[in-house]
Model the fold of this input.
Amino acid sequence: MGGVRAESHCAGLKAEARPASASFDSFRVLSRPSRSCGSPSRRAFLGRVPLPLAALALAACSTPHYYPPAAPNTARRKPPAEQDFKASDLAKSDIDVAAEAHLQESLASSRLVMEKLYRRNPREWRRGGYASMDAALDRAFDPRFEFQFAELGKLRGTDAIVLAFKPDYGGDRVFAFGVGLASMILISYNGKTEFFLVDSLDAQKLYNSARNVEIAAWKLSNARDANGQLYLLSNEMGGDVANLSFEREFGKIIAYQDVMSRITAQRTNRTIRRVSQTLATAVFLPL
Done:
């Protein structure tokens, strides 16, 4: 299954220039406030960059969100394909490109975790009323919903993960866990899937999300109902060969988030406040 795109919502912006004889410094970009494009910091930045680059950055406001397909299994991963050059690439730094790659890999691994959970717990997608596992996955990663679903009370991030392990929750636990995991990662990237010179990331949010993935993985392997049964089956240690494929994907996501956190901290010269918790009693960190 391929990734899905959906148009993001952004208020229009316009550029205004002084007489043609003016230098680039005399150009200024005007914007109306909006959720993704009109923050004060972004307007201030746009006012200091050359108009051609500012125009490219503003064009990013209408860039569709893109959620990738599930990550391939390790043995089936193909070499990365060379990407075609786009004009908008002129408004990206190397760190912006790295952020996009880390995010896409994390979302792809999140979808693979959700797919694996459905394969081990097929009763869940049936409980959610879906025609198939693929139908549930497609709905969860449809960017038009922005990971907000009525059946989850529009909970996202760690709130949705917590819902998946509530004893009285009668819905699709895999759906709640998968949506929570993927949306938590997206939230740590400020809800964006493409980045430009005008954007900035928060190293602490990325670091906290990595710790939250560790907590989520522990809960998945250990949370049990009143009868002592796991809410969701994942890793399997019995049999001749242990199935640790879930741990492999969680490990990838944690590594992606930690590496991006370090890159962001170096870029912004900020210190990450590190947190030490025991997983058995750990609480999710805020983003």
Remarks:
- DSSP finds nine helices and four strands in the chain.
- The first helix runs from residue 40 to 46.
